Amino acid sequence: MNHNDWRDYRAFIFSGVLLFVVVLVVGGMATLGIGLFKKETADFRGGVAATEQVHANGAYRIAAYDQFFNRCAEIQSKEATIAFLTTEAKDATPERVAQINSTLTAVRAGRAADIARYNADAAKTDTLANFLASSLPYAIDPTQDHTTCAK
What whole-number distance in Å separates Cα of residue 124 and Cα of residue 138? Predict the structure, then answer.
């Protein structure tokens, strides 16, 4: 090999190494740039996704609307059970009264949990509460004996 051949060979190797370095640098910049872009636009993209999920999804809207009526009906059902058991306890044997009292405790605890869930969902103003029907209460008072689900 003569001197010119080595010069050409070195230039070829140098060009290959330079091209490899340029590809690495550009790839790294692209990766970092995309990551930075994603980071900077995360709030916007998340907000759009949430809006699409909550407001543009018909199935979600209907389910959320129906959910409040169902929860309120569950509370009313437990209140009816409490009333029936309380009436039954007046004429029951002492053994049956003990059973009724145990059942009443469980039903009252379930009612309190249902009310807490209803009130928590009604407070979710950015999601579920958007679909709380105006005929339903905004919040249910757990100290009330009777719940009205539609005005």
Answer: 11
Query: For the chain, how far is it from start to end, CA to CA, in angstroms?
Result: 100
Radius of gyration of the chain (CA): 34
Beta-carbon contacts of 138 under 8 Å, excluding residues fewer than 6 positions away, are 122, 132
Q: How many residues does the chain have?
A: 151
Task: Provide the 3-class DSSP secondary structure of residue 68.
Answer: helix
Helix (H) or strand (E) holding 128: none
d(CA 1, CA 84): 107
Handedness of CA 75, 134, 139, 60 (dihedral sign): positive
Dist. CA 52–CA 112, nearest whole Å = 33
Return the structure tokens found at 138: 């905004």
Q: What is the pLDDT of residue 151?
A: 67
pTM > 0.85: yes or no: no
